Amino acid sequence: MTLTASGPTTAPVPPPSARSTAGARRRRWAALVPYVYVAPFFTLFAAFGLFPLLYTAFVSLYRVELQTPGDMEWRGFGNYAALLTDEFFWTALRNTFTIGVLSTVPQLAMALGLAHLLNYKLRGRTFFRTAMLLPYATSVAAATLVFAQLFGRDFGLVNYALSLIGAGPVDWQNGTLASQIAVSSIVVWRWTGYNALIYLAGMQSIPSELYEAAEMDGASRWRQFFHVTLPGLRPTIVFTAVVSTIGATQLFGEPLLFEGSASGGISHQYQTLGLYLYEQGWGFFHLGRAAAIAWLMFLLILLLVGINALIVRRRSRREEGRA
């Protein structure tokens, strides 16, 4: 600021230099770089994840046939009401729950036991850990076709083994419980090793000092397992339970290829919700009803995951209160 005869005046501000302008431009680009890196993911997610989800919800409110997808008749929640009054929907829902329990509970229990064995210093540990992933890496089609032969009624190896102990042959494809056990065994075989490696990674993250302290207190291997290993694996067990529940709700390939029919047997004895969706959409050409089934499955998964999270939260609060 300078004084002149006419009064105080402000000195002119010099124009910004080219170097400062370039620096500001680089800072703006540096702030945008993280968004550029994540943009492909969000673009693909919007195109192949979010849009199909929203469009499926839109189609579920219309009567749409596969032969004429352009002719859409407004039904509102008519597709959902029709499903809730369809006995085959409730049969598929019950079968999904039964097969889910028969496959998830033994699968996670066996995976926990195998991980506990592999956690010790055994010879050939690397080989056994690699072999655990072989069923998971096997094609679901190949595995299901092999198991369909094993559970054959006349020449199946399972019935042959039962005959050695005096048991009669079992019709694994037509019996309700027998067919569900056969389908569940495929799921157990494919996913037990995968979950065992997840549990093994969780066990190796438990501090060794806890085991040393338990051993000094005279705790046996079983007591160490129940009082050190299981509490340390609780977040991992919750994760595998949630993922297995989602997989059981969406079970499709194993029951479809077990007999090669979308109806899940003569009396729909092992038809899951995934098979029921496929039958309605691509067997009976009811795309609107198939979309409604997809959304009911989505809501069912949210409900099951929410119940699981609520149980875990209440249990954590109880333990914090005891501490």
From TrEMBL:
The domain of life is Bacteria
Q: Which residues cross the membrane?
A: 35-62, 97-118, 130-151, 292-312
| Protein name, UniProt field | Carbohydrate ABC transporter permease
Principal location class: membrane
- Tell me which SUPFAM superfamilies the record gives: MetI-like
Q: What membrane topology does the annotation report for this chain?
A: Multi-pass membrane protein
Region of interest: Disordered? 1-20
A Pfam family matched by this chain, by name?
Answer: BPD_transp_1
The UniProt entry's sequence similarity note says:
Belongs to the binding-protein-dependent transport system permease family.
Look up and give the organism this protein is from: Streptomyces lateritius
Which cellular compartments is it found in? Cell membrane
Q: Which Gene3D superfamilies match?
A: MetI-like (1.10.3720.10)
Listed A to Z, the keywords are:
Cell membrane, Membrane, Transmembrane, Transmembrane helix, Transport
Every ABC transmembrane type-1 domain range: 93-308
